[in-house]
Write a structure and sequence with these properties.
By secondary structure, this protein is α/β, with parallel strands linked by helices. It has helices at residues 11-27, 40-46, 65-76, 110-124, 174-181, 223-233; strands at 2-7, 32-37, 54-57, 81-85, 102-105, 130-135, 138-143, 147-153, 156-161, 168-171, 188-192, 195-198, 202-205, 209-212, 217-219, 238-239. Helix 1 (11-27) packs across helix 4.
């Protein structure tokens, strides 16, 4: 069961959110509970009974009071995930970092709402040791230690593991996958627009390729990616002697 809190002053906005989120989670068979609040006073009374896991709110509502309430909620539930709508007038204060993970929905459309609702939901799953993703009709959980890399192909991302039985494709952008796996002590590195690798499996690298301990050669497409590999694993991994040689040894 995931507990969701909505806090918007506008009734129409609140009704739209509740209806669309309900349809989103119903379609995927996810157990949920949604509580709606118009202001921080209602929110404070409601959370005494149940703390939310997922919080959708107007970050500029009540002249910033709803945002302050979100910060308080984060203190009570460190795993809280926040979702807001984009507002061009919002000036991001430094302590917004305390709200992370914080997702900003570009537009108030059903498609955008569903996309970010599921992304935020996946961020609330127990993912200390496993990557969770939706492959109809279930959520699957793959241990991070067994993931070699993610590769993007069109609208789908493939997860490639040491155990081929755990290899699957699912509908999610690689950028979103990168956001989900980049917290905590895990180290996944972007080496290409289409590749996100687990640094644990890097055996060697040069300017153009990475060699994994399992034998695969994967391309590094940009110098910025190469520098990131250098910065993150140069002291732990063996670097290829010949930078200009495309074959890694």
């Amino acid at each position: 069961m995931i507990n969701i809190a909505l806090c918007f002053e506008n009734d129409a906005e609140l009704s739209f959110m509740r209806m669309e989120l309900g349809k989103c989670f119903d379609r995927r068979g996810i157990d949920y509970n949604i509580n709606c609040y118009h202001n921080t006073a209602e929110l404070q009374r409601g959370i005494r009974r149940r703390l939310p896991n997922l919080f959708f709110y107007d970050i500029m509502g009540e002249y910033g009071l709803i945002r302050m309430a979100a910060l308080s909620l984060k203190q009570m539930n460190p795993k809280l995930v926040s979702v807001i709508f984009h507002n061009r007038n919002y000036i991001k204060p430094p302590n917004d970092a305390f709200l992370e993970p914080l997702y900003t929905i570009p537009s108030k459309s059903t498609k955008q709402l569903w996309s970010y609702a599921l992304l935020a939901y996946e961020a609330t799953l127990d993912k200390e040791n496993a990557f969770s993703y939706y492959k109809r009709p279930f959520y699957l959980h793959t241990p991070y230690d067994s993931i070699k890399y993610f590769v993007s192909e069109g609208r789908r991302t493939h997860i490639v593991c040491t155990d081929e039985k755990q290899n699957h494709a699912f509908y999610k952008k690689l950028n979103d996958v990168e956001t989900l796996v980049s917290s905590g002590q895990r180290m996944f590195l972007r080496i290409h627009q289409s590749y996100l690798i687990n640094a644990k499996y890097v055996a060697a690298y040069n300017r153009s390729h990475v060699l994994l301990t399992t034998g695969e050669h994967l391309p590094i497409s940009k110098y910025e990616y190469y520098k990131e590999v250098c910065n993150c694993i140069a002291e732990k991994k063996t670097r290829c002697i010949n930078e200009n040689n495309s074959s890694l040894r």
